[in-house]
Write a structure and sequence with these properties.
Layout (H helix, E strand, L loop, with lengths): L3 E2 L24 E5 L6 H15 L8 H24 L3 E8 L3 E8 L20 H8 L2 E6 L6 E8 L3
Parallel strand pairs: 1-5
Antiparallel strand pairs: 2-3, 3-4, 4-6, 5-6
Helix pairs in contact: 1-2, 2-3
């Protein structure tokens, strides 16, 4: 089960014994898509992510597991960008990056709220499933508040396909 923690992507936070946090793992290429005022932000974000996945070898998928991993990544991007549209005044930027075994998705917005899965989750209720989906599909996710107090970055990490 994924957890939410207020640390930057790749930073596991303090060690349980109180030791220092480990350094952020090396990241491959980072791709950025500006979404400020963009119409059709969700399909644009999906198309942008799909192109990155193609370039990084996730697509075209050779196996059902690889196809499922790519589809999950596109769904998570859709959910994160949709949440920014509905609850945070719109997304500012989408960042997609990868390390050897992890895909990192980040959506920057100027909103003040904190996304969280609805508890209890009721599958039959319309709407409100976005962060539950993110929590279920990702290794981890979290929220990092911007130092200047305006907005946040909502991030999610997913395992690369085998």
């Amino acid at each position: 089960m994924s957890t939410t923690r207020p640390y930057p992507p790749g930073d596991p936070g303090p060690e349980p014994d109180g030791g220092a946090a480990s350094a952020r793992p090396p990241v491959g290429e980072v791709r950025r898509l500006q979404l400020v005022g963009a119409s059709g932000a969700v399909p644009r974000a999906r198309d942008f992510t799909r192109e990155a996945l193609r370039d990084w070898g996730w697509l075209p998928a050779a196996t059902a597991d690889q196809r499922a991993a790519a589809e999950d990544a596109l769904l998570v991007v859709s959910e994160l960008v949709t949440n920014a549209c509905l609850h945070a005044g719109g997304p500012e930027e989408l960042r997609v990056s990868h390390a050897a075994k992890v895909l990192r998705l980040e959506v920057v917005d100027l909103g003040g709220g904190t996304p969280a899965p609805r508890v209890p989750h009721r599958a039959g209720r319309p709407g409100g499933h976005g962060m539950f989906i993110v929590q279920r599909l990702c290794l981890d996710w979290g929220v990092v508040r911007h130092a200047d107090g305006t907005g946040k970055t909502v991030w999610a990490e997913m395992a690369a396909p085998a």
